[in-house]
Amino acid sequence: VLPAGKVFPIQIGSELFRLSGASISSDAPSYFSHFFGDQLYNSSTKPGELKTLYIDRDPETFRDISLHLQGYYVKPRDGTHFIRLFADAQFYSCTPSSVPRLTQQLFKSEIFIQIGNRDFQVPRDLFSSPGDSPNFFSLGFAHFFSTPKEVFPGLDRQTLLRPPSIQPPAVPNKCGDIFADLVKLLQGYPLNIRDEAHRADLLRDARYFHLKGLEQRLLPCNISYNLTRHKHEMVLRLEDIRQSGISLVPTPSPTSPGSTTSNSPSAPPPTSPPRSGFINYARPFIDETSHELIVEIGSESTRLDTSTMRAVFHGQTKARIASLLQVIANKMGLPATQSLGLMMMQTGRGVAAQPASPANSGLSEERIKVSVSSDAYISVDGTRVVCCDSGAEDGEKPLAPRLRTEDQRNFEDCGREWIVPRGHWRVRVQATEGYGGAEVVLQAVRLEAFTGESARNGQRGFL
After folding, report:
1. InterPro entries from the entry (predicted)?
2. Contact at 8 Å (CB) between 266 and 345?
């Protein structure tokens, strides 16, 4: 500890600073306290002949450090100022293990970063919501600026003439306005999403910064309570479904008045997963309870054969449907449809080499079974169509449904094959006697379909 009333000269660049022993000792040990302490206690230097400490650094940055030593609170103004304070505070510390108050203060300060052409000061606790950590900031430079023993990795602190050049944190290839909207959401404020292009920009940057919880909040989703079915329902796009949120809610089994209920002490506990019910979904990190899932399938990738009530999917939609069915099969604990050894013999590459197909899950054939009832809202070639019946009961061979227009006229010219550009489907699992004991049925909720090129061309828009 230096004498509190003694003044010590420090030359930083072209300016001379005079600090008292009390100021230097307020944030010790440091390079200053060691330099002047050696002169006072470990050498033959007379008290009136103290040598001036010369350091070739920026005097403006040291002016803020001297204010800190004099007891004032110093807050970085921007990313450049933070980097300069950070580098010099580390340089003036005596050893890598010493963490004076200024260095510790900078370790705990906000994250200073430039996104696009805008500067941000992001509090570290802003990412405390579920799913938002670890993220781009905590895994990158925020970790670098919070580990005092590894600030200058690969460099010997004892022989370091000056700290290395550190560039202020910046992400120049992202939009500052979009990041400002993300920060607003993280702070708990509502955000007016202007259009789907704005939502797509928000989702793209939320994924880039690895903010998984915020991403789930930004996904288009509709949650409502169906009074007719007495269930909470969630409409979600197929591409936005994550396997961790999928669950199967079994259909309640009817019991007679005299039968024993499952709550009775004598009732045996269930020994196997349910084989029938509806698929429910809870958004990861967001929803505490699950809702009955209604999947929205778009992009004109569904072909429905109304004579067999089977649907065929194409492109990415087929791969996503196959993945969804595989997740459902795993949740139900169903066995694999084909052994790994046989796959290796056929392709030499195992599971990854198998083409995406709903039949791989064991819950469906290549063409998925579809159910269309009178509750479904169907539009074919722009005409409202009513389904009089679904054509078959559960477990029976599906038959073509009887279709009528709203004025009760037969709709025989609607064709037996529909192209469905957009559709809402419930995902139902029903027991079957086939392999695995269960199969998936897509239950139509709302369909927009056309039967030929003419109707499709009628929906085209002009540029």
Report:
1. SKP1/BTB/POZ_sf
2. no
What percent of the chain lies above the pLDDT cut of 70? Answer: 77
Q: Is residue 260 part of a domain?
A: no
Q: What's residue 398's pLDDT?
A: 46
**Which secondary-structure segment (H or E) carries 377?**
strand 377-380
**What total number of domains does the chain contain?**
2
Same domain, 307 and 449: yes
- What is the reported pLDDT for 124? 85
Instruction: Indicate the residue among 108, 137, 171 that finishes a domain.
Output: 171
Q: Where in the sequence is the domain holding 434, given as residue range(s)?
A: 221-252+273-458
Mean pLDDT of 429-446: 85
127 and 233 inside one domain: no
Query: Please, which pLDDT band fits residue 410 given cuts at 50, 70 and 90?
Result: low
Q: Where is 438: in which H helix or E strand?
A: strand 438-450
158 and 225 together in one domain: no
DSSP 8-state assignment for residue 264: S
b/e per residue, 440-454, with b = 16+ CB within 10 A? bbbbbbebbbbbeee
Residue with token string 């993220």: 135
Do 228 and 131 fall within a single domain? no
Answer yes or no: is 214 within a domain: no
CATH classification at residue 92: 3.30.710.10
Backbone angles phi, psi at 19, to 5 degrees: -120, 145
The pLDDT assigned to 164 comes to 76
Is 208 part of a structural domain of the chain?
no
User: How confident is the model over 87-97, as a mean pLDDT?
Assistant: 73
CA atoms within 13 A on the CB side of 80: 3
| Statement to judge: residues 230 and 338 lie in one domain | yes
Is residue 437 in a domain?
Answer: yes
Q: Are residues 232 and 120 in the same domain?
A: no
Query: Are 159 and 300 part of one and the same domain?
Result: no
Q: Give me the long-range contacts of 17-26 (CB less than 8 A, separation at least 24).
A: 17/59, 17/62, 17/63, 17/66, 19/66, 19/69, 19/70, 23/66, 23/69, 23/70, 23/71, 24/69, 25/1, 26/69, 26/71, 26/101
The per-residue pLDDT for range 310-357, each reduced to its tens digit, is: 999 999 999 999 999 999 988 888 776 654 444 444 455 555 556 778
Strand, helix or coil at 70?
coil
Q: How confident is the model at residue 271 (pLDDT cuts 50, 70, 90)?
A: low
Read off the pTM.
0.80
What pLDDT digit, counting tens, does each position of 242-262 carry?
A: 999 999 998 876 554 444 444
- Given CA atoms 69, 71, 76, 77 in this order, what sign does their dihedral have? negative
